[in-house]
Design brief:
By secondary structure, the chain is of the alpha/beta class. It is 36% helix and 21% strand. The longest helix has 25 residues. The protein has 8 helices and 13 strands. The chain folds into 2 domains: 133 residues, Nucleotidyltransferase, domain 5, CATH 3.30.420; 170 residues, Nucleotidyltransferase, domain 5 (2-Layer Sandwich). It has a 5-stranded mixed sheet with strand order 3-2-1-4-8, sandwiched between helices. A 5-stranded mixed sheet has the order 11-10-9-12-13, with helices on one face.
């Protein structure tokens, strides 16, 4: 009988879900909207979507668990707590709500931790005991693994590298309420803000002037950089220099073998990786310089959040 895990990635606008086998193959996937004011209506929608996927499978199957990656996900309690981009305030017992619907084990953690477990189970971190995963989407998420174990901390919220402070005064406003957080500079949204800052400060001729802030995205910036647009190239160099410097701080804490970077902004490849690696080594102690690999994720960018969430159940079963 085929063992199936449902992997769920809860985002601010939409929730991706999929059915994953023990080898990490995504057999079915889809999405539902997240923005239901009542969390129970959201659970109804998600349950119906997952059951529809299960009914589409041609092989005999057993659903063995549901893994969930979510902003501000608490692994110990199975709750989402004070997530600024989700419609439900306070502490939401999302794990219990889903367990009641399916009657199988549920594991929940923040989305970046799920990505890190996915990288360890199915991706480039197989066999590694010490590594960091950075996810670059709307914000910056991170998962830290030490001695083969996810670093969760006392409350289950450890590893929020995206909310390290870059500037204590005059920094960019972050949705968390603080100013100068790393993710306001290093993320898909952050690079858009950088482009507009550079456009305001310089008289560089750039095609990016033709885009509104709403229409601009990280892929457009990358495409123009690849075509030689000086301002787009500078935006990536600035972004990579900040990311590399803050990764040097993280290296001091965890002494990782490698740092994996995934997400939409990471699809820019060397435009991001080259300045990041340079800044990492420029800001590293001698004992760490040129010794930490910075690598793209080996998980498929589109299915990585689903596979990562599902891998939480693989870990729990082990």
């Amino acid at each position: 009988m085929l063992q199936i895990i449902a992997g769920v990635d809860i985002g601010g606008t939409s929730t991706k879900y999929g059915l994953v086998d023990n080898e990490g193959n995504v057999l079915y996937q889809g999405s539902v909207k997240t923005q239901f004011p009542d969390v129970n209506d959201y659970i109804d929608e998600l349950e119906n979507a997952i059951r529809e996927g299960l009914e589409s499978l041609t092989d005999t199957y057993e659903l063995v668990g549901v893994g969930i990656g979510a902003p501000n996900g608490n692994y110990f309690k199975g709750t989402i707590e004070e997530a600024p981009n989700l419609p439900w305030s306070g502490v939401v017992p999302i794990g219990k709500l889903i367990e009641d619907r399916f009657g199988v084990p549920v594991a929940l953690t923040n989305d970046a931790n799920a990505a890190a477990i996915g990288e360890m189970v199915y991706g480039g971190a197989k066999g590694m005991k010490n590594f960091i995963v950075i996810t670059l989407g709307t914000g910056l998420g991170s998962g830290l693994v030490s001695n083969g174990e996810m670093i969760l901390g006392h409350q289950g919220f450890a590893g929020e590298l995206g909310h390290q402070s870059i500037k204590t005064k005059g920094g960019r406003q972050c949705k968390c309420g603080q100013k100068g957080c790393l993710e306001t500079y290093v993320s898909a949204t952050g690079i858009k803000r950088t482009v507009y800052k550079l456009l305001a400060d310089h008289h560089i001729d750039s095609e990016l002037r033709n885009y509104s802030f709403v229409d601009l995205n990280a892929k457009i910036v990358a495409d123009h950089a690849k075509q030689g647009d000086a301002l787009a190239i500078e935006a990536f160099e600035y972004t990579g220099s900040i990311l590399g410097a803050k990764l040097a701080d993280a290296v001091v804490y965890t002494d990782p073998e490698a740092i994996f970077i995934m997400g939409g902004l990471a699809q820019a490849g060397e435009l991001l990786f080259k300045p990041t690696i340079k800044a990492l080594n420029d800001n590293s102690m001698a004992i760490f310089k040129d010794k930490v690999k910075v690598l793209p994720s080996k998980l498929d960018n589109q299915t990585a959040p689903i596979v990562g969430a599902a891998s939480l159940i693989i870990q729990k079963m082990k």
